[in-house]
Each structure stands twice: as structure tokens, then as C-alpha cells.
């Protein structure tokens, strides 16, 4: 069950990142974050009311609040990086944050077997190689790399926090709702500050019409990201955190393949080899 839910997480995150990257090429990144997460809040609110999940409220929800504070920072940095650099390069580097939940899992007593340790090593190397990597020293590229690293460790922190935020399925709905409400509050405050400092909340061309036309895509990004957090939490609660974290971090392969299929971004030989290693590592992890 852990491997299945973790792989579902990687698929959902990969598609959400691809969609978010595309949207930030047409609209301000903060607006993409706030609107997509607001849609997620509305949907989760209905689910919480329908399931009576508010009865699951407990001090564990502070983990969800913390994840909600860290999440917008990571998403904003990541979407900006995706808008600046090739998705097939940025996304794999973003997965380096896997060291955070893996370290937490080991600290909590996870002891992967030899086959799983081998799978972790192979998968992590594969994910990094899937990005190129192209780290030349031009100013824009340095900025892209720094933004990606901020996002990576932010995402890793969210993974570690959300897995601790609930112990039941209905409790998970409430935790995700609290997380997304916090996302909107933090992201909305950042957007307000940005506008007051002269930034834009709407695209220069098309304005609100662009956002309105992009609502289906924004909804997909927000809901896919929520679903990924949910499937990851289930995976981490039913098996070793290290196994769940590494398999969930295969999402860059999905993003790179989507960029290849839709945007015709060409994979270099090292990227193709990295994707193959990442998949081989996932097989070892699942087999272990």
C-alpha cells in the first residue's frame, strides 16, 4: 500500500508542477498560488462538512498550520524557478528536499533493508541526473538554482509535517483543509504586500480575463496538489517514511515527461538515463 500511494503522489505532484509552471508563464506566481489554493479550500471545506471531519480536531493540526506556512513559500519559489528555467531541469533539482522526510523517518526509527537502501540511493541519483544537470554560472541560472533549492527543502518540510498532522482518514481531510486555509492566508498576505510595492496581481495582457479562462487549469493544479499531500500522508502512515518519501519524490520524472510531450522539451542523454535510474530505484524500493 505504501508504494502504491507514494507512486500516486509522484504522479499527482508531477502533473501539478507541470500545470503550475505553465500557468506562471502567463500569470504572476503568487496569483497562481492563491487562486489555485482558494479553489482547493472550497472543495475541501465541502468534504470536511460532509464527513464531519471537524470532530477530529486535535493539537496535531498545528503540524498542518506549519505546513501551510511553509508551503506557499516553497510553491512560489518553485513556480518562479519553473518559469525561469526548463522544467526538465528545475523539477528534478526540486526533489532534493527528499532528504528532510527521509532524515525524519530515520530519526523516528525507520530502518530500511539493504534492498531498500540500494533503491533509495539509485532513485535519488536518478532523479538528480534527470535534471541534466545544467548549473552554469549565468545570473538567471544562479537565481533559478537558488529558488529551486529553497523550494526543495520547503517541500521536504511540508512532507514531514503533513504526515504527522493526522491519524485517521477524516482527520486527514481536516488537516489538509487547515493547511490550505493557511496557504491562502499566507499567500494572500504576500500578494497584498507585493501589490503595495508595485507588483502585479494580474497578467499585463488580458488581466482578469486570463485568470478566468485559466480557472479549470488552476483548479486542477490546486486539487492535484491537495490529493498528492493526502496520498503521501497515507503512504507515510502505512509504511517506512523513507520509502514513501523517495517514491513520492519521483514526480520530477513525470514533470519532465509532460514537458517533453506537451512542450517538446528534448531530454538529453543524461536526463533519459536519470529517468531510467529513478524508475529502477522505485522497483527496488517496492520489491524491498
Shape: globular
Largest sheet properties? none
How far apart are the first and last residues' alpha carbons, in Å?
A: 13 Å
Tell me the number of structural domains: 1
Please give the radius of gyration in angstroms: 18 Å
Which strand-content bin applies to the residues? under 5%
The helix tally amounts to: 13
Helix content: over 70%
Tell me the structural class. Answer: mainly alpha
Uncertain residue segments:
135-140
Oligomeric state of shown chains: single chain
Number of strands: 0
Please write the string of helix (H) and strand (E) elements.
HHHHHHHHHHHHH
Average pLDDT number:
81
What labels would you give this structure?
288 residues; mainly alpha; EmrE-like; globular; transmembrane helix
Describe this structure in words.
The protein is mostly helical. The protein has one domain (2-287). Helix content is 77%, strand content 0%. The chain has 13 helices and no strands. α1 (2-23) crosses α12 (251-262), α3 (61-84) runs antiparallel to α4 (87-94) and α5 runs antiparallel to α11 (241-248). The chain is globular and about 55 Å long.
Amino acid at each position: 500500500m505504501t508504494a502504491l500511494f507514494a507512486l500516486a503522489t509522484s504522479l499527482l505532484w508531477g502533473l501539478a508542477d507541470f500545470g503550475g509552471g505553465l500557468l506562471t508563464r502567463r500569470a504572476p506566481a503568487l496569483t497562481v498560488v492563491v487562486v489555485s489554493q482558494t479553489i482547493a479550500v472550497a472543495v475541501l471545506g465541502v468534504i470536511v462538512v460532509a464527513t464531519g471531519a471537524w470532530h477530529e480536531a486535535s493539537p496535531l493540526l498545528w503540524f498542518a498550520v506549519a505546513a501551510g506556512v511553509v508551503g506557499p513559500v516553497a510553491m512560489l519559489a518553485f513556480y518562479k524557478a519553473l518559469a525561469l528555467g526548463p522544467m526538465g531541469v528545475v523539477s528534478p533539482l526540486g526533489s532534493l528536499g527528499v532528504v528532510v522526510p527521509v532524515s525524519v523517518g530515520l530519526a523516528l526509527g525507520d530502518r530500511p533493508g539493504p534492498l531498500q537502501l540500494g533503491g533509495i540511493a539509485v532513485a535519488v541519483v536518478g532523479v538528480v541526473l534527470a535534471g541534466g544537470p545544467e548549473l552554469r554560472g549565468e545570473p538567471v541560472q544562479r537565481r533559478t538554482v537558488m529558488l529551486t533549492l529553497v523550494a526543495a527543502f520547503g517541500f521536504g518540510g511540508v512532507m514531514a509535517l503533513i504526515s504527522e498532522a493526522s491519524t485517521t482518514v477524516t482527520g486527514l481531510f481536516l488537516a489538509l483543509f487547515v493547511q490550505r486555509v493557511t496557504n491562502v492566508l499566507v499567500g494572500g498576505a504576500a500578494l497584498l504586500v507585493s501589490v503595495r510595492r508595485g507588483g502585479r496581481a494580474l497578467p499585463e495582457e488580458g488581466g482578469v480575463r486570463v485568470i478566468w479562462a485559466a480557472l479549470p487549469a488552476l483548479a486542477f493544479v490546486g486539487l492535484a496538489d491537495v490529493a498528492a499531500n493526502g496520498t503521501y500522508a497515507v503512504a507515510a502512515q502505512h509504511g517506512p517514511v523513507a520509502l514513501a518519501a523517495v517514491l513520492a519524490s519521483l514526480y520530477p520524472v513525470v514533470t519532465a515527461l509532460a514537458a517533453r510531450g506537451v512542450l517538446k522539451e528534448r531530454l538529453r542523454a543524461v536526463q533519459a538515463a536519470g529517468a531510467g535510474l529513478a524508475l529502477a530505484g522505485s522497483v527496488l524500493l517496492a520489491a524491498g
